[in-house]
Task: structure prediction
Amino acid sequence: MALTAPVEQILSWYSSDNPGTLTNLVRLLGHGALAGTGKMVILPVDQGFEHGPVRSFAPNPEAYDPDYHVRLAIDAGCNAYAAPLGSLEAVAARFAGQVPLILKLNNSDTLARVEQPHPAVTASVEDALRLGCVGIGYTIYPGSGARNRMYEDLRELTLEAKRRGLVVVVWSYPRGAGLSKQGETAVDVCAYAATIAAQLGAHIIKVKPPTAHVEQEEAKRTYEKYNIPIQTLADRARHVVQATFNGKRVVIFSGGEAKATDAVLAEVRELAAGGSFGSIMGRNAFQRPRAEALELLSEVIQIYRSAR
Result:
């Protein structure tokens, strides 16, 4: 299959990577309903680990079954399905080759209350290869006092993953004692978090949709001095994408907590207008009944298909 112009352009940004990694990027960008557009919609289901099974799956009990999620990703035409080790081990053989898989290599839980959060490494690059994944996922918490260890662990995992031809996806979620709760999604902090992920070697960067709040006083003065537009979500998405090497890294935005369909679609339209490369949408998909989830994902995909 010939590469489309958007996919060729994206590959040109990763010229230091080996053919194996570029091939897996093509697999991601060439799969599903958005194949060849340079956009992507990924279904991530790490919430059972991160938030607990009841909070995650009780709204739609079918979602307790790992098969449900991978079938949803396939039938919706998602570019990929991302999950922790146990979930992928439960489905990888049965659904081999039907949707690209991303193995989430670290996870947290909500049973411990810690001031400086630090996810545990719960899987390996070897696991990702064994399960036929196209890439690995890893979460960092800029703002945590434990960030240096996360960055160092990611450096080693990234080196191994790239050496072995895998794509690196980084969830860059600011949190910890260094930030206020409001600051976790502040536009200056989200842009900074995206830059950090890019500097650590991520191919694909996942961040939360940024708010208009500016957390850092020094940054606030700069935004005001240069009149940087951050009034609309489209403005803020454009600013975050710009922060990753002037848009030369793939930045996708999370769907966040479950909300009404109109609110989800309005947010996605703004993100797409701001140059987002796509969405990685978990709870807003799998907590809905299957028919509603498929309809929602179809509408999200159509928004990105229509984006310029």
In short: The mean pLDDT is 96.
